[in-house]
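Input structure tokens:
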């Protein structure tokens, strides 16, 4: 089961160092999502992250940086998939790019067949977006179908409910608030979650 960390949308003190520590602690996939950042800010952060980890980073913005940083993972907003033709995705697939997107309704999953995985949220009440609450019923279990992308649970996941998320049968979980609400404890909290996932 995948455990993905998404960046805080805002700047974080010593952010590159913390990201390096997370990778050293066993992180295998990091999503760089900074919706308000310009390209120079993203370059500065990427330059602070060890080159050995760049292949494990997915970019949400400034996709033109892929070649400069040996990045092959691209995240696009849901509306982008709806408005783009298959030719674009086939061309980039041939260049070994890995695609992801975000959805808020499970019925949308079949529309995202070009994606390798999708984030579905909110699974629980969000830790980073007040008022962003889960719509899933108690006891929900995700029913997988053939020929669809992996579905990653996002929204409110922390050590108190990670086991519950695992029982929901998703392919993985993504965490944001559980890491960045207390950046000084980012690595400690990641290790706790990773241990729960692997035990």
């Amino acid at each position: 089961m995948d455990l993905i960390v998404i960046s805080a949308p805002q700047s974080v003190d010593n952010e590159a160092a913390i990201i390096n520590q997370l990778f050293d602690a066993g992180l295998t996939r990091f999503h760089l999502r900074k919706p308000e950042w310009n390209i120079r800010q993203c370059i500065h952060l990427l330059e602070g992250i060890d080159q050995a980890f760049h292949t494990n980073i997915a970019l949400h913005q400034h996709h033109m940086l892929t070649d400069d940083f040996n990045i092959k993972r691209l995240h696009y907003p849901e509306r982008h998939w709806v408005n783009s033709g298959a030719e674009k995705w086939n061309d980039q697939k041939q260049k070994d790019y890995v695609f992801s997107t975000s959805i808020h309704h499970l019925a949308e999953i079949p529309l995202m067949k070009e994606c390798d995985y999708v984030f579905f949220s909110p699974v629980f009440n969000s830790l980073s977006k007040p008022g962003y609450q889960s719509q899933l019923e108690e006891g929900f279990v995700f029913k997988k179908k053939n020929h669809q992308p992996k579905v990653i649970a996002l929204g409110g996941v922390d050590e108190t409910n990670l086991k519950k998320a695992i029982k929901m049968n998703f392919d993985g979980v993504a965490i944001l608030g559980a890491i960045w609400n207390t950046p000084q404890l980012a690595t400690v909290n990641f290790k706790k979650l990773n241990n729960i996932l692997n035990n």
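The longest strand covers residues 98-103. Residues 186-197 form the longest helix (12 residues).
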